[in-house]
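Hi support team,

I've been running sequence recovery on a batch of backbones for a student project. Most finish fine, but this one hangs at about 90% for roughly twenty minutes before it completes. I'm not sure whether the input is malformed or the queue is just slow. I've pasted the structure tokens below so you can try to reproduce it. Let me know if you need the job ID as well.

Thanks,
M.K.
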């Protein structure tokens, strides 16, 4: 059990909060990551059936996947590793007119990789409602002057907020840390800057968080003179001697447009 990072949620109020946060659309698709024993899946399937949306669950534990498929006849169960299977599941779900949402109690050790996959897909989910480690949730939702690489990456395409704090006692077996449920809502207007260029700027700016913005950008853009980068940052209204955590998503996008064109 622990090898797969499985901690099963055992709090009906939190489960209700997760379901209430999902904007269900008729003929839309909900992709659940790691349904486990079905604490969320079973009530979510019932709600989806009423709403007329399709629920897909990706479960790595073959025995649990088989049990869920047997228990919930309307559920599409995909057995296997979500990190490998999610891009294809998203590609299929994104073809529907009403789009798709992603939900799940995410094993802590795959959170970063999972968010990276979602951030890189062409058609983003309308919403993600995810249970993650509380510290990670706080990092994802951080804004300037406490920005970080993770928040800058996620908030490029989504508005992020914590909708529930979940103590370790609400899981069986209890993990070592507290958790939180985050809601990522796709921004009504997606950025015009190319995502690859933006993420280049993010990687550069946060390469060494304790160094200045100028030092980090200069180290990554060694084909551009340092003095020229300094002048450019000032023109953008960005202090060259500021720290990466002071940068907003808009300022990072401006840097990307100017230097990674």
């Amino acid at each position: 059990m622990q090898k797969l990072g499985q901690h099963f949620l055992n709090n009906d109020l939190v489960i209700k909060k997760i379901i209430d946060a999902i904007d269900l659309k008729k003929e839309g698709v909900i992709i659940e990551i790691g349904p486990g024993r079905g604490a969320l899946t079973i009530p979510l399937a019932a709600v989806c059936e009423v709403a007329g949306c399709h629920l897909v669950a990706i479960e790595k534990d073959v025995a649990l996947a088989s049990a869920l498929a047997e228990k919930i006849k309307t559920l599409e169960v995909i057995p296997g590793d979500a990190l490998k299977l999610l891009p294809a599941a998203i590609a299929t779900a994104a073809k529907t007119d009403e789009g798709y949402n992603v939900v799940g109690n995410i094993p802590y050790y795959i959170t970063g990789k999972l968010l990276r996959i979602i951030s890189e897909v062409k058609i983003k989910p309308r919403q993600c409602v995810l249970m993650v480690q509380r510290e990670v949730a706080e990092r994802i939702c951080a804004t300037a002057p406490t920005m970080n690489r993770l928040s800058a990456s996620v908030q490029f395409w989504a508005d992020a907020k914590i909708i529930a704090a979940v103590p370790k006692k609400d899981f069986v077996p209890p993990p070592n840390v507290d958790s939180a449920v985050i809601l990522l809502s796709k921004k009504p207007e997606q950025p015009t800057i190319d995502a690859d260029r933006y993420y280049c700027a993010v990687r550069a700016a946060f390469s060494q968080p304790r160094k200045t913005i100028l030092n980090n950008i200069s180290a990554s853009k060694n084909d551009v003179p340092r003095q020229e980068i300094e002048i450019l940052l000032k023109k953008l209204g960005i202090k060259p001697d500021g720290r990466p955590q002071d940068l907003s998503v808009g300022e990072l996008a401006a840097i990307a447009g100017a230097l990674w064109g």
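--
Follow-up from support: It reproduced on our side and the slowdown came from queue contention, not your input. The chain is about 40% helix and 20% strand. No action needed from you.
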